[in-house]
């Protein structure tokens, strides 16, 4: 038994617990809609990351940094999605060890099918729950925390990053 008494009412437990409960609750609201469209939550996340990136592509390592997947996990998901035609791999011309994941027309079409219902759910269960000023504060706070705990979360997602890795000419 420890000599230090633990305060189970510590506000830090409450803060992280509420965050986890909200995240889990939102994910469960989205799950049925993803199933309707035959896409897993991680596949949806990969499609969205690629669709929102310059030239609809990210280096595999950047994709791993932006998602909840390890490098090997990204490889497995990308391989599966490549076989289903939603994304494809491209070699990196400047680094033979690197490759890109690129969303295909079929992947963009799948997103077009999913997004109206998904955005409706996001609006209902996330956006509409807060007045605009509180939502702005929440988004700023989430960015601050995200940048502290996952500094790679935006790697490859800006035009500057794309120019840095794009072939010359």
TrEMBL record:
A biological process term (GO) from this entry = response to stress
Q: Which GO terms describe its molecular function?
A: DNA-binding transcription factor activity
Residue ranges constituting the HTH marR-type domain according to the UniProt record: 1-147
A Pfam short name = MarR
What InterPro entries does the record point to? HTH_MarR-typ, MarR/SlyA-like, WH-like_DNA-bd_sf, WH_DNA-bd_sf
What top-level branch of life does the organism fall under?
Answer: Bacteria
Q: Where is the signal peptide?
A: none
Q: What is this protein called?
A: MarR family transcriptional regulator
What species does this protein belong to? Actinoplanes nipponensis
